[in-house]
Amino acid sequence: MFKIEKQIKGKSAKEILISRQESFKTLTALKIFLEEKRNLYTPKVATVESMDYILNQWQYFIEYTKHADECLHNNRRRSQLKVRCYFKKNSLFFGSNHAGQG
């Protein structure tokens, strides 16, 4: 999926949406494959837990295929949150007599 996203980066919204709708067919085949293979293992195997996770989150996983402006990953949002967390930690003792002392 990331390879497809790399190929369509910078294209028009209409082209991105068409490409994502085509990749939706591949994702549907993946879902069928996971549902079939899931029953071959015992429930507590890590592979089955991973399959269950993606199948339980499926509606959210495929959401990006319906929109041209959504991203497959959340790296940008994670970076924004990281800056906010660092600021919160760094400003925790701002104005304190003990600020900056190790």
Short summary of the structure?
The protein is mostly helical and 102 residues long.
Q: What would you say this structure looks like, in words?
A:
The structure is a single chain. With 102 residues, the protein is mainly α. It has one domain. 63% of the residues lie in helices and 0% in strands. The protein contains five helices and no strands. The radius of gyration is 21 Å and the shape is flat. The N and C termini lie far apart (47 Å). The relative contact order is 0.10.
Distance between the termini: 47 Å
- Fraction of residues in helices? 55-70%
Amount of beta strand: under 5%
Number of domains: 1
Q: Sheet with the most strands?
A: none
From the spread of the alpha carbons, the general shape counts as: flat
The whole-number mean of residue pLDDT values reads 77
Q: What gyration radius follows from the Cα positions, in whole Å?
A: 21 Å
The tally of strands reads 0
Structural class: mainly alpha
Outline the fold blueprint:
Elements: H1 2-8, H2 13-38, H3 46-56, H4 58-61, H5 75-90
Helix pairs in contact: 2-3
Features:
102 residues; mainly alpha; 63% helix
